[in-house]
Amino acid sequence: MKRPPGSLAGLWSWYYLNMWKIFRMINAKRVRDYYEEFPQAVPTGSKFPVLELATTHGEVFRTAGLKGTKHFVLLTGAIS
């Protein structure tokens, strides 16, 4: 089947992905164990660490300057 136009919220990918293989991978013991350990690694309500981060433009960003603000979003990713 040809890929339908548009993203369809990512649902078109089920046309070429193996749904059962992904289901088995998600429910694998090692994956479940990883996610069961995660809440202990970063407890709910813990304070965000003070970090100095470099932007893609070379500027230095300090999270300490955000203290007292209500919300902020920190987005990370790989640039390749």
Number of E-state strands: 2
Helicity, as a percent range: 25-40%
**Looking at the structure, what is the overall shape?**
extended
What is the chains' assembly state?
Answer: single chain
Output mean pLDDT. Answer: 76
**What is the element string, with H for helices and E for strands?**
HHEE
Kindly estimate the percentage of residues that lie in beta strands according to DSSP: 5-15%
Q: What is the spatial order of strands in the main beta sheet? A: 1-2
Rg calculated over all Cα atoms: 19 Å
Continuous helix count: 2
Q: What number of structural domains do the residues give?
A: 1
Straight-line N-to-C gap? 31 Å
State the secondary-structure class. Answer: alpha+beta
Low-confidence stretches: none
Major pleated sheet:
2 strands, antiparallel
Chart the SSEs and their pairings.
Layout: H1 19-26, H2 29-41, E1 52-54, E2 60-62
Antiparallel strand pairs: 1-2
Structure description:
With 80 residues, the protein is an alpha+beta fold. It has one domain. The protein is built from two helices and two strands; from the N terminus they run ααββ. The chain has helices at 19-26, 29-41; strands at 52-54, 60-62. Strands 1-2 form a two-stranded antiparallel sheet. A hairpin with a 5-residue loop joins strand 1 and strand 2. The longest helix is centred in the middle third of the chain and has 13 residues, at 29-41. It starts with 18 loop residues before the first helix and ends in an 18-residue tail after the last strand.
The gist of it:
With 80 residues, this protein is α+β, with helices and mostly antiparallel strands. The chain has helices spanning 19-26, 29-41, and strands at residues 52-54, 60-62. The two termini are 31 Å apart.
